[in-house]
Structures are given as structure tokens and as C-alpha cells.
Amino acid sequence: MDNATATIAPSGATIDPREAAHFGTLAAEWWDPEGSSAMLHKLNPVRLGFIRTAIDTHFGTDTRSLRPLQGRRALDAGCGAGLLCEPLARMGAAVTGVDAAPENITAARAHAIAMGLDIDYRAGELGALSLCAFDLVCSLEVIEHVADKPAFLRHLAGALAPGGLMILSCPNRTARSRLLLVEAAERLGKVPRGTHAWDQFVTPAELTDLAAGAGLRVGEPRGIAWSPVQGLHLSEDLALNYIVTATRA
């Protein structure tokens, strides 16, 4: 399915109904490290390493602390079934997770309860949920799936507290990402078919412009690359995927 041409979303909405339906069908396997979300499980430690460093740098927290987000509020927009929300909660944050697919939220709540974690999960349009004043706002591997990217960035910015930190990640739109993240990954069964539409990927320059339009200033992006020796790792190579901080301009 070509997700780029199949978007049927109401005017002004950020949720693409077909994208939400696609990911909703994967909800039951989200926490299976060998299931349809296996690549996210491999990606998560790399993202968390970047996030932890960004938290310590931005808020001046002790790098040795196990709970650097104690007393702070965190939002994960496009949370899936909670792969990022749960580590943020363990870092001490009061976490809210939002997703377009109700099935994902059901799976996320059940897993959080089983883990003894208190996380506020909500399904629906980010801009309709009246969320604000979060110290940390994350949206990882999400912007390439939304129907209205400028509106989505504005909603993320509106949820960020003054002095807060935002973290975004996205596949880059390059020839290499098309070959490896779409063609090879889907054909080899590494990710479910229909997960990615390459022309919806966002380049770092485009994300910088989108962020500026929402009153945000982005930091220096780091690539998330892969090699046979290191596996997935943070890199200067932005060709496949990248992760970046943002703050209010």
C-alpha cells in the first residue's frame, strides 16, 4: 500500500486513519522482541542512550542518577504500546502516552499494569487532548506517519513547558533509506509490509523548517546507523535515521 497517496484524513487532522489502523493491527505483538516490532526493540536502547544524555545536558541532572526525571512530566506522542513510556516512568517521570490507535493504548495499559507502572495513556488526536506544560516531549518514528506535519509540530510545541526539552526522530529521505528501510526491510520481513512510505520521510533540513514554523529550534542531529560490527548505533551518518533535540526558540 502506498501510504502517501492513501491518506484519507479530515481537514486539520494529524491522524491518518489508515496508518492508525495499520499499527493497531500490530498491538498484540508490540512487546514481543521477536515479533512485528522487533526492530523497535533493537532501536530502543540506542534512542534511550541519546535521550538520557540529552536529559542530563539540558536539565543538569546527575549522570549517575537512576531517576533523572524525578518530579518532571513527560509526554510520548505516538507512543505505540509504551516501549518508550515505561523507561521514562522508571526514570522518575509522570508519563503521559498518546497514540492514534486505541488498540495500542489498550496493550500499553495492560503492560504497564503488569509492570507495576502508573502511566496515563490516551488515544486520539494530540491537539484535541488539551495537553500542556510537559518538561519532556518525545515523538520518535512518528512524524513520517502523520497526515499534517506542520500541525503535528505545532501540537508538540504547544505541549512543551517553558524551558522544556523535545526529542524527535525520523527516517531520512535518502536513496539508502529507500533501499534498506523500505524495500529490503519489508521484503525480508524485518518490518511489516506497509509500515513505511518513503516519500513521507522527513530530511533534517525539512524537520528544521517544520520546527521553526512551530516556534522551535532544533539541535545538531545524530544519525542512527547500522553496521555488522556495531549493529544499530549513534553515528554522524544521517543517511538512514536521525534523532535530534528541540527547544522553544
UniProtKB/TrEMBL annotation:
Gene3D superfamilies: Vaccinia Virus protein VP39
Catalytic reactions on record: a 3-(all-trans-polyprenyl)benzene-1,2-diol + S-adenosyl-L-methionine = a 2-methoxy-6-(all-trans-polyprenyl)phenol + S-adenosyl-L-homocysteine + H(+); a 3-demethylubiquinol + S-adenosyl-L-methionine = a ubiquinol + S-adenosyl-L-homocysteine + H(+)
GO terms classed as biological process: methylation
Record: residues binding S-adenosyl-L-methionine: R47, G78, D99, L140
CDD domains found in the cross-reference section: AdoMet_MTases
Pathway, per record: Cofactor biosynthesis; ubiquinone biosynthesis
Keyword Transferase recorded: yes
EC assignment: 2.1.1.222, 2.1.1.64
Keyword S-adenosyl-L-methionine: yes
InterPro entries listed in its UniProt record: Fumarate_lyase_CS, SAM-dependent_MTases_sf, UbiG_MeTrfase
Keywords tagged on the record: Methyltransferase, S-adenosyl-L-methionine, Transferase, Ubiquinone biosynthesis
A GO molecular-function annotation: 3-demethylubiquinol 3-O-methyltransferase activity
Leading EC class: transferase
Signal peptide: none
Family named by the database record: Belongs to the methyltransferase superfamily. UbiG/COQ3 family.
Annotated protein name in UniProt: Ubiquinone biosynthesis O-methyltransferase
Organism: Novosphingobium soli
Encoding gene per record: ubiG
